[in-house]
Design a protein that fits this description.
Layout: H1 5-14, E1 15-16, E2 28-29, H2 31-34, E3 39-42, H3 50-62, E4 64-65, E5 74-75, E6 79-82, H4 92-96
Parallel strand pairs: 3-6
Antiparallel strand pairs: 1-2, 4-5
Protein backbone atom coordinates (compact mmCIF):
# COMPACT_ATOMS: atom_id res chain seq x y z
CA UNK A 1 0.00 0.00 0.00
CA UNK A 2 1.55 3.30 -1.08
CA UNK A 3 -0.30 5.80 1.08
CA UNK A 4 1.01 8.49 3.36
CA UNK A 5 -0.19 10.39 6.41
CA UNK A 6 -3.77 11.54 6.46
CA UNK A 7 -4.80 9.36 3.50
CA UNK A 8 -3.58 6.25 5.30
CA UNK A 9 -5.49 7.21 8.44
CA UNK A 10 -8.62 7.95 6.40
CA UNK A 11 -8.43 4.61 4.60
CA UNK A 12 -8.01 2.78 7.93
CA UNK A 13 -10.97 4.56 9.56
CA UNK A 14 -13.37 4.63 6.61
CA UNK A 15 -12.12 1.78 4.41
CA UNK A 16 -11.41 1.80 0.69
CA UNK A 17 -12.54 0.21 -2.54
CA UNK A 18 -10.49 -1.78 -5.01
CA UNK A 19 -8.46 0.55 -7.24
CA UNK A 20 -8.82 3.57 -4.94
CA UNK A 21 -5.03 3.99 -4.91
CA UNK A 22 -1.90 2.17 -6.05
CA UNK A 23 -1.80 -1.20 -4.34
CA UNK A 24 -5.52 -1.36 -3.48
CA UNK A 25 -6.06 -4.75 -5.11
CA UNK A 26 -9.19 -5.44 -3.08
CA UNK A 27 -11.75 -3.49 -1.04
CA UNK A 28 -11.26 -3.24 2.71
CA UNK A 29 -13.70 -2.36 5.51
CA UNK A 30 -12.67 0.55 7.66
CA UNK A 31 -12.32 0.29 11.42
CA UNK A 32 -15.61 2.15 11.98
CA UNK A 33 -17.56 -0.37 9.91
CA UNK A 34 -15.60 -3.40 11.14
CA UNK A 35 -16.36 -2.51 14.78
CA UNK A 36 -20.00 -3.43 14.12
CA UNK A 37 -22.08 -2.86 17.26
CA UNK A 38 -18.94 -2.64 19.39
CA UNK A 39 -16.74 0.17 20.61
CA UNK A 40 -13.75 1.67 18.80
CA UNK A 41 -11.14 3.42 20.97
CA UNK A 42 -9.13 6.11 19.19
CA UNK A 43 -6.09 7.19 21.18
CA UNK A 44 -4.27 10.47 20.56
CA UNK A 45 -7.13 11.99 18.58
CA UNK A 46 -5.36 15.34 19.03
CA UNK A 47 -2.78 14.18 16.49
CA UNK A 48 -5.46 13.66 13.84
CA UNK A 49 -5.47 16.50 11.27
CA UNK A 50 -8.40 18.89 11.79
CA UNK A 51 -9.96 18.04 8.40
CA UNK A 52 -10.04 14.35 9.37
CA UNK A 53 -11.52 15.25 12.76
CA UNK A 54 -14.34 16.94 10.86
CA UNK A 55 -14.83 13.87 8.61
CA UNK A 56 -14.89 11.63 11.67
CA UNK A 57 -17.47 13.84 13.37
CA UNK A 58 -19.63 13.82 10.24
CA UNK A 59 -19.42 10.02 10.08
CA UNK A 60 -20.48 9.73 13.72
CA UNK A 61 -23.36 12.20 13.33
CA UNK A 62 -24.67 10.62 10.13
CA UNK A 63 -23.90 7.00 11.14
CA UNK A 64 -22.24 6.37 7.80
CA UNK A 65 -18.86 6.53 6.10
CA UNK A 66 -17.74 6.92 2.51
CA UNK A 67 -14.81 4.59 1.82
CA UNK A 68 -11.84 6.12 -0.02
CA UNK A 69 -12.46 5.90 -3.77
CA UNK A 70 -16.17 5.12 -3.42
CA UNK A 71 -19.27 7.09 -4.32
CA UNK A 72 -21.40 4.96 -2.00
CA UNK A 73 -21.91 5.46 1.73
CA UNK A 74 -21.82 2.58 4.20
CA UNK A 75 -23.78 2.54 7.46
CA UNK A 76 -21.93 2.26 10.78
CA UNK A 77 -23.21 1.39 14.27
CA UNK A 78 -20.07 1.50 16.42
CA UNK A 79 -19.52 3.67 19.48
CA UNK A 80 -16.33 5.72 19.50
CA UNK A 81 -14.29 6.71 22.53
CA UNK A 82 -11.46 9.12 21.81
CA UNK A 83 -8.64 10.33 24.02
CA UNK A 84 -5.65 12.63 23.86
CA UNK A 85 -2.90 13.78 26.15
CA UNK A 86 -2.86 17.20 24.48
CA UNK A 87 -3.75 20.30 26.47
CA UNK A 88 -7.46 20.81 25.92
CA UNK A 89 -7.61 24.31 27.38
CA UNK A 90 -8.08 27.23 24.97
CA UNK A 91 -6.32 28.82 23.15
CA UNK A 92 -4.33 25.65 22.36
CA UNK A 93 -7.49 23.63 21.77
CA UNK A 94 -8.55 25.96 18.97
CA UNK A 95 -5.35 25.13 17.09
CA UNK A 96 -5.49 21.31 17.44
CA UNK A 97 -9.17 20.41 17.66
CA UNK A 98 -11.97 21.15 15.25
CA UNK A 99 -14.42 23.32 17.22
CA UNK A 100 -17.24 20.91 16.48
CA UNK A 101 -15.23 17.99 17.92
CA UNK A 102 -14.10 19.68 21.10
CA UNK A 103 -15.75 18.78 24.40
CA UNK A 104 -13.91 19.46 27.65
Amino acid sequence: MLLAGATLIESELFGYVKGAFTGAQHSKQGLLEAAGDGTLFLDEIGDLPIDLQAKLLRALQEHEVKPVGSNERVGIRARVIAATNRDSNPPYARERFARTCFFA
